[in-house]
Amino acid sequence: MRLGDLAEQLGGVCHGDADLEITALGTLEDAGAGEVTFLAASTPREQLAECTASAIILRHEDLKAWPGAAVICENPHLGYAHAARALDTTPMPDPGAHSSAVV
């Protein structure tokens, strides 16, 4: 999924390369190329220096601490939860009743 599309789905603002391909979620400590993570309000900004994620979901006031691509959201934790749903590739089951169901 493109970062710009992810930002739109989260109701956030894309900062940086909107065409950046995001394929998975990761933690602030372990995220790498193609992954997005988030900066919680309680997390020290200094931890961003070690982050290798392709993009971070963060608040506008934290943007100056991150030189890379980002999705700006009022609530990054909630944005990350919505990103998990948007990036989930688990196939949805077919709707309807199972052939062995008895009512």
Molecular structure report:
The chain is an alpha/beta fold. The chain has a single domain (3-87), classed as MurE/MurF, N-terminal domain (Udp-n-acetylmuramoylalanyl-d-glutamate--2,6- Diaminopimelate Ligase, Chain: A, domain 1, 3-Layer(aba) Sandwich). 19% of the residues lie in helices and 17% in strands. The mean pLDDT is 92.
Order of helices and strands: HEEEEEH
Shape: elongated
Structural class of the helix and strand makeup?
alpha/beta
Helix content: 10-25%
Low-pLDDT runs:
none
Briefly note the CATH topology name: Udp-n-acetylmuramoylalanyl-d-glutamate--2,6- Diaminopimelate Ligase, Chain: A, domain 1
Task: Average the pLDDT over all residues and give the rounded result.
Answer: 92
CATH 4th-level superfamily: MurE/MurF, N-terminal domain
Q: Main sheet: which strands, in order across?
A: 1-5-4-3-2
Count of individual helical segments: 2
- Write down the domain tally: 1
Distance between the termini: 41 Å
Please report the total strand number as a whole number: 5
Main sheet record? 5 strands, mixed
Strand content range: 15-25%
Radius of gyration: 16 Å
According to CATH, what is the class?
Alpha Beta
